[in-house]
From TrEMBL, chain A:
Keywords: Cell inner membrane, Cell membrane, Membrane, Transmembrane, Transmembrane helix, Transport. Gene3D superfamilies: MetI-like. Belongs to the binding-protein-dependent transport system permease family. This is Binding-protein-dependent transport systems inner membrane component. CDD domains: TM_PBP2. SUPFAM superfamilies: MetI-like. It comes from the Bacteria. It comes from Ancylobacter novellus (strain ATCC 8093 / DSM 506 / JCM 20403 / CCM 1077 / IAM 12100 / NBRC 12443 / NCIMB 10456) (Starkeya novella). One of its GO terms (biological process) is transmembrane transport.
From TrEMBL, chain B:
This is Binding-protein-dependent transport systems inner membrane component. It is found in: Cell membrane. GO terms for cellular component: plasma membrane. Residues 70-276 form the ABC transmembrane type-1 domain. InterPro entries: MetI-like, MetI-like_sf. Its main location: membrane. Belongs to the binding-protein-dependent transport system permease family. CysTW subfamily. Keywords: Cell membrane, Membrane, Transmembrane, Transmembrane helix, Transport. The keyword DNA damage does not apply. The chain crosses the membrane at residues 21-46, 66-91, 103-127, 153-173, 201-225, 260-283. Gene3D superfamilies: MetI-like. The keyword Cell membrane applies.
Length: 276, 293
């Protein structure tokens, strides 16, 4: 039996969860409502609703270009980090070798140091070699946390594949490369999709590194959103919010797709059961 | 094993073969683009525009406007991190037995994707003097006039809770659901009440994990930047250290000084992370799950 005190405690906890979720939803709704509103002063809702801020934002901020750049950068980051991250995760999951803890530490460090700490020296190096301000500079900067992220995320997925499947393939004469293409990749599809989609969300929302390395033609959506807030004097708040809504949708879609393949708690913990 | 022939058989004996070499591209990448710039920045920080070897560091620590940023950042990052952990543990304890766990965790994960800029923009509207929160509070007669929640400490504080809580919650939930339920059942059979079971079984098992969670969440909160500028008072009480670093780099174009500030940030962080991990060493270390831990 649970005591009255325990029931009170439980109620308090749920009340907080509801409070938190309601406020987050309300906060998001303000942005959405404002992006459709005409004039919103001193009232619960705007005077009237319109689509014109979307058209304005699209033109003013050259959103078409910005979105294209954002997805080109995110796409390149995801592709490269999968290509070098998955093999590395495989080696770490399957082999024990001297210095392995050191290699693990090497992959953990970029995740334990905030982006701005290594971003400033990294941007300096990129300026020195002339890559800063270009799209490749932004891609390289975003790869620094994404590659380790992919490696760390993929290790548990690989560990849960029975090594006997691989041994069987080896017996039939498959080399490492054929093993990857015909056995591992098909088995790892859910894991790779989850890892790459999360890497995608991270890249699209990564402010600091892009801010430090981007030039005028290589800004991603989040950085151009930040700049437009500071130019707010000449721009309507509503068109900034329209841009924010577009930004939110562009990350939400990827996240929802990712969550279809992986349980959110598995993202951070070892996989206990096979992903659905 | 039927591994492909290694280049040097002596290495194969020690566990290094063709498969092990797959780790090389990623490892080289991290060395080249993380370790090298970091060391480069460290060296650069010792070559100031003016003054001797330690010129940048004496400049930073002799200017209260600059070294004050460390304290201002800590005053924001430490309470937020502790609050997020203090909220995550009881909620995760309740949620782990829930049927629709996946739905709730998904809802709670969503704010992570919003990004700090959008959360800041949203909070400016929502918490502002004419925002829905102030209106609701006035409607219910809880306050007389709008309370000020943006362009100060609390605006940044709230935004850090919104973006940080989902993250600590996810980590905590996955740790708590990893504890073998048999342990608690055994205690319950022996007559331990819920509080005692938490205090003597669950808590000791998750303390090591909480220490890691603290480190990750602290790193996140300590590097707060866009929200401190947009929601806070960047000239006053939320003049955080990453803002100082970005200013040195992009307004004064003094990369040497900016690198020095980045190094000071790293030292403060490693200090806290080291302290927490040392404290963690004093607690129980061992498996929490049924089989392998």
């Amino acid at each position: 039996m649970e005591s009255a005190l325990e029931r009170l405690w439980r109620t308090l906890i749920w009340a907080f969860v509801v409070f938190f979720v309601v406020n987050v939803i309300a906060m998001i709704s303000t942005v959405v409502v404002n992006s459709f509103g005409t004039r919103w002063l001193n009232s619960w809702l705007p005077a009237a609703f319109t689509f014109r801020w979307y058209a304005a934002a699209w033109k003013e901020f050259q959103l078409g270009d910005v979105l294209l750049v954002t997805f080109q950068i995110a796409g390149a980051v995801v592709l490269i980090s999968a290509l070098i991250g998955v093999p590395a995760a495989y080696a770490l999951a399957r082999r024990n070798f001297p210095g392995k803890p050191l290699v693990m530490l090497l992959f953990l460090l970029p995740l334990l140091v905030p982006p701005i700490t290594f971003g400033v020296p990294l941007a300096t190096v990129l300026y020195k070699v002339g890559l800063a301000g270009t799209m490749w500079g932004v891609i390289i900067a975003n790869l620094v946390p994404t590659v380790p992220f992919t490696v760390i995320l993929m290790i548990p997925f690989i560990e849960q594949i029975d090594p006997r499947v691989e041994a069987a393939a080896r017996v039939f004469g498959a080399g490492t490369r054929r093993l990857f293409i015909h056995v591992l990749v098909p088995l790892l599809v859910p894991g790779i999709l989850a890892a790459t989609l999360l890497a995608m969300v991270r890249t699209v929302s990564m402010f600091e590194l892009t801010f430090l390395t981007a030039g005028p033609t290589s800004q991603t959506l989040v950085v151009s959103l930040y700049y437009s807030v500071f130019a707010a004097g000449v721009r309507a708040g509503q068109s900034i919010d329209a841009m924010a809504v577009i930004y939110m949708l562009s990350t939400l879609i990827w996240l929802i797709v990712a969550l279809r393949f992986v349980n959110p708690t598995q993202i951070v913990a070892r996989v206990k059961k096979a992903p659905a | 094993m039927t591994a492909p022939p290694a280049r040097r058989p002596t290495l194969a004996d020690r566990g290094i073969d063709g498969v092990t070499l797959l780790v090389l591209p990623a490892a080289l990448f991290v060395v080249l683009l993380f370790v090298y710039p970091f060391l480069y920045g460290l060296l650069l920080s010792f070559a100031p525009k003016e003054g001797g070897l330690l010129g940048n560091y004496t400049r930073f620590f002799s200017d209260p406007y600059m070294y004050g940023t460390i304290w201002l950042t800590l005053r924001l990052a430490l309470p937020v991190t502790l609050l997020n952990i203090a909220l995550s543990v009881p909620i995760a304890m309740q949620v782990r037995h829930m049927k629709h766990q996946r739905l709730l965790t998904t809802i709670l994960v969503l704010p992570i994707t919003l990004g700090t800029v959008l959360v800041a923009e949203g909070l400016l509207n929502y918490l502002g003097p004419q925002g829905w929160l102030n209106r609701t509070l006035i409607l219910f007669g809880l306050i007389e006039r709008p309370i000020r929640l943006v362009h100060n400490y609390w605006g940044v504080f709230i935004s850090l809770v919104i973006t940080g809580f989902p993250f600590t919650f996810l980590l905590t939930l996955s740790m708590i659901s990893g504890i073998d339920p048999a342990l608690e059942q055994a205690a319950a059979t022996l007559g331990a009440r819920a509080r005692q079971r938490f205090r003597h079984i669950v808590l000791p098992l998750i303390v090591p994990g909480l220490a890691v969670t603290f480190c990750l969440a602290f790193v996140d909160a300590f590097s707060v930047f866009p929200s401190a500028v947009m929601l806070g008072a960047p000239a006053g009480e939320t003049r955080v250290i990453s803002f100082a670093a970005a200013q040195a780099a992009f307004e004064q174009y003094d990369y040497s000084y900016a690198s020095a500030i980045a190094m000071i940030m790293a030292v403060v962080q490693f200090g806290f992370v080291g302290l927490v991990l040392t404290l963690r060493g004093l607690f129980y270390k061992g498996p929490a799950g049924g089989g392998k831990g």
